[in-house]
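Q: Focus on the chain.
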Amino acid sequence: MIRKARFVALAVAALVAAPALADKVVVMLQHTDAMSIMGQTTPAQDTTQESWFGDGAVRFDGGDTTIITRFDRKKLYFVNNGEKTYSSIDLPIDFKALVGPEMAPMMEQMAKMMAASVVVTPSDKTGKFAGIACQYKNIEISMGMMKMSILGCYSDSVGIDYGRYREFAAAQADLMPNSGWMKELADKVRGYPVQTETTTAMMGKEFKSWQELKAVEDRTPPPGHYDPPAGYREVKYDPMAQAARKGKH
């Protein structure tokens, strides 16, 4: 349940001998309030997240998780830095194949239970974060027992490849059993979310979170930056184990 409540919150080394070109790096600050639901208590969290946009790849780093999408290989690498493991997943992602035939019926039922409606309302409010101007939108998401109200400021002036960003976001959504609403939201809200304020209500309780752009930088990626780290052990991606791990954080 906590994983579900947290989720709406949310990466190619040079392969030739020529000098590496700088990639665009988007640095975000994120805060999530403490919460206690169904006997599970999670403390408040403050993290810094980085999204690297390279030539043919996107990399996201947040907490102990790294997600790398290699469009040139049609692969998504899900990296657990705490356990020093990674999973290699084919693109486009087939969620039923990830869980296996024995778990697929249960996942389908879960997806139906987690089906969501999305309402986006334009706003006249504008903002500017790290020098990037943005336009606010009000977003209401209803998902079973959970409701989220998001005031988000979006911009198309961040200087990234927005097509790649949308592909990367869609691939992450496909790691969940109910990705339809996330893709619907991406279709309705264009641009990069440079600032968001989210209120999540579930089972009579409420908590808040926010995300804000800190910087947009040009950096040269180190060798192998868009590959799983050397020495990490490859494991099969397990959505259920990942949900359990998330629920403890």
Summary: The helical segments are 2-7, 95-99, 104-113, 162-173, 180-188, 239-247.
